Amino acid sequence: MDGDLGDFLRSRRARIRPEDVGLPSYGRRRVPGLRREEVAQLAGVSVDYYIRLEQGRGPGGPSRTKSGGVSDAVLDSIARVLQLDATEQAYLRTVARPPKKERDGRRRSTRPGIRAGVQRLLDSMDRTPAFVLGPAMEALAWNELGDALHGFSRLPPDRRNIVRHLFLEPEGRDLYPDWNAVAAQCVATLRLSAGTHADHRELRDLVGELSLKSEDFRRLWADHQVRACMYGTKRVRHPVAGLLTLPYESLTLPETPEQTLVVYTPEPGSETAERLALLGSWAGTSA
Q1: Using CA atoms, how far apart are residues 155 and 208, in angstroms rounded to an integer?
Q2: pLDDT digits (tens, 9 = 90+) for 37-88
Q3: Is the Cα dihedral 247, 116, 159, 1 positive or negative?
Q4: What is the rounded distance in angstroms from the CA atom of residue 215 to the CA atom of residue 213?
Q5: For the chain, how long is the longest CA-to-CA vector?
Q6: Of residues 101 and 269, which shows the higher confidence score?
Q7: How large is the C-alpha radius of gyration of the chain?
Q8: How far apart are CA 248 and CA 266, in angstroms?
Q9: Could you give the CA distance from residue 12 to residue 33 in angstroms, rounded to a whole number?
Q10: Over the stretch 123-139, which tens digit does the pLDDT of each residue have?
Q11: What is the rounded CA–CA span in Å between residue 225 and residue 160?
């Protein structure tokens, strides 16, 4: 995902008004937000240094770390000027210091296996949908109710992907009543993962495919939002179970930080819990 650092800095610079950082605003500007010269001034770095960062030409001089990357002090100053939140700051550090494998041009082949204990854990959750996602939000494993909800086992392995289904499959839009919000959240999560797993081959291929085939994805990806969605609530309109309100928790698996366990946690006794019980019965009889 070449150009991530420059694109990210430009997108964040564009959302800051001069008056937000104590600068006078004189008349109409050709582009929204701060100028590069203003960011450099407020961050305490030279204009040339900041321009090199945005253009991806690499910094030089005393603000480099021993390993050749941008120093913490510079990144902290830029983050302060651009008013980045904690997730955005972490993303900035990641894309400013790409992993050595990416710089060497090597990409990982990634279809990691699931430990047997993790699959047993999934199978033990017989009243709630649960599944494991990889860095590209590809489904790696699931329990029976998770499969009944998302239909992973009915898809070819290369199509078992939450984001791909959302943007490219016709039923993807029908599944989520709040499609726009879910789509923006998924892309922001994928963008965050892309910064951390820059050498992940399937992730890069997915972004390329979606950028070519989905105008909605291209627009959201270009917005460069990053977000860690570790919990929340989604509404799902299932063709069998009907409308479900599904709180969820996302947990990073120990020893395999590139894998995320997602568990839906409906309120006990709620209408959604009852509908999931019926979905589980239907899945058992139709297997």
Answers
A1: 21
A2: 999 999 999 999 999 888 876 555 545 544 457 888 999 999 999 999 999 9
A3: positive
A4: 7
A5: 70
A6: 269
A7: 22
A8: 8
A9: 8
A10: 999 889 999 999 999 99
A11: 24
* Strand 130-133 versus strand 139-142 pairing type: antiparallel
Contacts for 263 with CB less than 8 Å, ≥ 6 apart:
125, 128, 129, 130, 248, 249, 250, 251
- Which residue in 187, 161, 158 sits closest to 172, CA to CA? 161
Order of strands across the sheet with 130-133?
139-142, 130-133, 256-264, 242-253, 231-238
pLDDT digits (tens, 9 = 90+) for 6-30: 889 999 999 888 888 877 766 666 7
Tell me the per-residue pLDDT of 92-130, one tens digit each, with 9 for 90 and over: 998 888 766 544 444 454 556 889 999 999 999 988 999
pTM greater than 0.70 (yes/no)? yes
pLDDT digits (tens, 9 = 90+) for 169-181: 988 889 999 999 9
Encoded tokens for 184 = 């923006």
Residues ≥6 apart with Cβ < 8 Å to 189 = 137, 227, 228, 229
